[in-house]
Amino acid sequence: MNAGAHDAMPAEVRRAPSATSLRALDALNFLMADVRDGIGPFLAVFLKGTRHWSSSDIGLAMGASGLAAALSQLPAGMLVDATRAKRAVIAVSAAFIAAGCLVIAHGQTLLPVLLTQTALALISAVVGPCLAALSLGVVGHRMLAARVSRNEGFNHGGNLVAALLAGTFGQYAGAEWMFYLVCLFAAASALAVMMIRPSDIDHELARGGESLRAADGTGRPIPLGEVLRQRDLKIFLATVVLFHFGNAAMLPLAGQMIAKAAPGRDVVALGACVIAAQLVMMAVAAAVGRALRAGVGRRKIFLVALAVLPIRGVLFALTANPYAVVAIQLLDGVSAGIFGVIATVIASDLMRGTGRFSFAQGATSLAVGTGAGLSNLTSGFIVDRFGFAAGFLSLAAVAAIAFIGFALLMPETGRHEESATVPPGQRGSRARGRGVRRSLS
């Protein structure tokens, strides 16, 4: 697929979704922030402190779910592209996640918890692509950037509220109440998704097509082989792997460094890091949305996130002071806040007209997981042998490679909105210029 094919596509029908559907998307993104990850980092604390499991059993349960999540990303994306029952997929997934949390809350032995964690990872894999697809199907390509920015704001707000409630319930009402909280959010999520009006969802747009009403209405997606040969997609996914290779281990390493340098203050400092970063992410997500609406290119915005990451790694290498670590962690809110919005928007740009939007979302999630796994594995060995400063500097070096590679190889992807405002007489010359930059390997 080339630039000429993109420019020859029919203009997207302007979307006019109801206020009810838009408010339901707000509520859904807020509520699913807690549901899609279960109780997240609190699970290890629960199994260790309440069930008194060994670290090896906890690692096995967490590792199995991580592996299942990675393996399920691409099939989950393909499923979301293929189905028109996206509201039902989210509602049923929420119900299964709630049931799984109850099993874990009352499970005493390894096998049921291991099997449940694995099942929850498989089920949760469809939630992210489904949320993105519903957003695209409701608002369309032109408004997706603003919608994703709003989604991320509500998602970070939901994560913040869920973390505060889980910590409070776990401290004062018992650890099992953290799981009941997920069940409550899951029931509310099912209600919220059903408030999205079916008539407001264009299912061809939802999977990255132009319009359900265009051409013959068949909406057949292009072959996966053609998608996977797209040069820009491969550059983007490689950048995502390197971004998370450089990013994922930084906060865990910072926590270990604080625990060593200032025993007793590590939990408080890490809690402050998480809360501060979530607050920054909310503000950054909104700022990215405004920048995109003002015409700032996706490439420029992503380069800001890529530039912040090596700076953060170098700063972490220079100090172990808990207050300084919290201040430096604010930069994670900048880079992660940008990534949460811009990754979905770039994937939409690259998949526009292919019918493979959710597949690209799954591929992005797989790239995230791959980078995070490499980050934690590699940095751990480096720190054990050479110390924390070397670990942070190695992560910063990987992040710098991501920045340089993306800056040199990746073109701007947000050209469809531009073409809608360019006078007809100028579109041919711009399309030819874009065609030179865009190619398949």
Commentary on this structure:
- It is a single chain.
- This protein is mainly alpha-helical and 441 residues long.
- It has two domains: 18-211, Growth Hormone, Chain: A; 226-415, MFS general substrate transporter like domains (Growth Hormone, Chain: A, Up-down Bundle).
- The chain has helices at residues 3-7, 19-35, 42-49, 55-82, 86-106, 110-124, 127-139, 144-172, 177-194, 203-206, 224-228, 231-247, 250-261, 266-293, 298-318, 322-351, 357-386, 388-409, 416-421, 424-437.
- Helix 2 packs antiparallel against helix 9 (177-194), helix 7 (127-139) crosses helix 17 and helix 17 (357-386) packs antiparallel against helix 18.
- It is globular.
- Residues 1-11, 212-217 and 418-441 have low confidence and may be disordered.
Give a short summary of the structure.
With 441 residues, this protein is mainly α.
Annotation keywords:
441 residues; mainly alpha; Growth Hormone, Chain: A; disordered N terminus; disordered C terminus
Proportion of beta-strand residues: under 5%
The percentage helix is over 70%
What kind of sheet is the major sheet? Answer: none
Rg of Cα set: 22 Å
N-to-C order of helices and strands: HHHHHHHHHHHHHHHHHHHH
CATH evolutionary superfamily of the largest domain = MFS general substrate transporter like domains
Taken from the alpha-carbon principal axes, the silhouette is globular
At CATH level 2, the architecture of the largest domain is Up-down Bundle
Query: What class do helices, strands and sheet pairing give?
Result: mainly alpha
**CATH fold-type name of the largest domain:** Growth Hormone, Chain: A
The count of β-strands is 0
The level-1 CATH class of the largest domain: Mainly Alpha
User: Please, what is the average pLDDT?
Assistant: 82
